[in-house]
From TrEMBL:
It comes from Corynebacterium pollutisoli. It is found in: Cell membrane. This is Putative drug exporter of the RND superfamily. It comes from the Bacteria. InterPro entries: MMPL_dom, Mycobact_MmpL. It is a multi-pass membrane protein.
Amino acid sequence: MFEKWGYFSYRHRRLVPLIVIAAILAVYAIFGTQLGNRMSQEGWDDPGSSSTAAAHIEQDVFGRDNSGDVILLFESPDGRSLNDPVTFGAIASHLESLKTEHPDEIAHVTSYFDTRNAQLINEEGTRAFAAIGLRGDGEQTLKDFRAIEDSLVAEDLPVETRVAGATAVADSLDDGMAGDIVRAEVIALPVVAVLLLFVFGSAVAALMPLIVGILSIAGSLGVLSILAGLTQVNVFAQSVVTLLGLGLAIDYGLFMVSRFREELDKGTSVPEAVGTTTATAGKTVVFSAAMVAVALSGLLVFPQAFLKSVAYGAISAVGLAALLSVTVLPALFGMLGHNIDKWTVRRTKRTARRLEDTVWFRVPGWAMKHAKLVTIGVAGLLIALTLPLAGVKFGGINETYLPPSNDVRVAQDDFNDTFPAFRTEPVKLVVTDATEQQLVDVFVQLRDIDGLSSQFTPDHGTVDGTTVLSAGIEDRDLNSSVVDQLRALDVPEGVNVYIGGTPAMEIESIEALMEKLPWMALYIVVATFILMALVFGSLILPAKAIIMTVLGLGATLGILTAMFVGGVGADLFHFTPGPLMSPVLVLIVAIVYGLSTDYEVFLVSRMVEARDRGRSTDDAIRYGTAQTGSIITAAALIMIVVAGAFGFSEIVMMKYIAFGMIFALAIDATIIRMMLVPAVMHLLREDNWWAPGFIKRAYEKMGHSEQLPPVPAPAPTPGTPEPEADVEKQDDEPLEGELLIDEAVVVDHDEAARGGRTTAEDEELIPFAELMARLEADRSGPRKLGR
């Protein structure tokens, strides 16, 4: 199927890119440019939780609680009291003018300067605050804040004025995410272009993956905007879509270009090279994208709209990357042909390089020779790196996700320290259907709650039998304890009590995630196992891949916990360690799992291809690793560069994802792919390829095992002993494809066929296909070649 599509793209090589590119640009122009106005800051909570019900009841009865939208913190710079008549009057006049100038945005202003409430000023009289409530609801709240933002601080005031509050924090987080997108475009893309130029040595070849990456991002942002018009899409989704979409699209383009050039180097015609590239690399790209999409679709199991919106956007980005790789790229290959190497800036030696001379041949060979030691050592190291995960702590999104030096973050920290009773994260109790006496019974029990910075007090008077009580919590670490105590209240019969507020929302969000996490894990493991079984034609290889992915994932999460909870590198990378947002942890699990299986498919597919062409297990391992090692390393490096751009993010959650991808890719592309995979497959020997008949038949029907010309086994480097399995096999039966012919003969012929040599010696060489035919004839006779 893929080969036919490759030839179709070649025949219509001018029409296919035109249609696809025009469609993507149209989607982006019509919808993508509207994305910024359609995204939401919400979606972190569990819609079916008690805290969500409490928020809805409070809003329906009393309206939205906007008391902590914006906080203006006033501080005397010289230690003078804010009660000084001149200072007091200036601040009061400024607050009054704010209400007058912005009646459509500001609902109310509560401050010491109009109430003289002693709780709104510190004991020294040097620091006071004003709480501004905004009229807007939902996304309109942030728009209202931006409308008044420039007016909040008056330069002529005799005091220092700083801005804090929940909406100000949300705005700073939003600005930080917007900066991530710009950083990816300004820093990551140029660096990736230079890397591709170095890898390919040709400007034209390097341009191909970039085309896929840019088109993929444009299309996915358009799709995300369409989705945002139908459902809630969190603003955070745009950063994740850009990160994943750009990195994977360029990786897929890299694999396609590499295979196309490899086919041209063999002397095949351009149409055949396009068809073979699409049938091999193109098929692998599609199945790899399916693995990533399946892992990301596991996020749809969770109730939080944030995770669902990220899943929608990321899946669309990955799907578009794969679609572009098997449509636009084959057509461009057909138009370019050998011009793929045009505008060469660095001459590569890919046609003269022997696979056995590369590090990607030598390292796996060493790992296979010491298979048991490598397996135990690498697995032990990965498990050891997982251990810090035991200390993971969960929390919610707040000002600590901003850099320690951020102005809003500093102001919010100072406000929390000075006025702990007015923190913007109170815990709430919404009581309905209670008589006056029953309400008193609840009040009495609330006095015994430990961990509060202030006792529960009514936010409003009782309306229609509904009362809202709120209290501050001394420390975020006590959120769980306070919520548990509230759940243990002896509620009078007939009375309904809902625990609300940010602390309750965070706890219930964590509980919902932990409840659904096993189902997500089961789903993605089963789904990827089935897909890999169809790709590999084996049940052992998918099981091995999943086990190794879990080991790498555990190590990555352990390192992230040591950093972002334990504080390792906090000063160096400019963030505040603390509890992690549980939805972000789930997100990184899906991303890392998807990326790991992605690279596993690229590596093992070449091994399976070699096996289908008649190679032994160890030869297939050597061939597959040596052929894909440099490409997988380059792909991982490119993805690390893209993730690294987001590692400079001001937002802790984005740093967490970026560093998670960097660690996962570094571990995966080095000790797992280069050492653990070859070692374990060597130990499994022929069991690697086992599958029941129906799996083999499905594998063959999908065109994976088409008759392909034999692949020469990479010869061992002179002086390097053969792996144990080869020696053991010689004692029982001849090695599959073993040759008693100088390896230089085969290599020299390849050189001559490619135009690399033109000596008389080359003209006497036997063509490789004829050589293999003679070997097969010898095998059917009484004497085995090599014995």
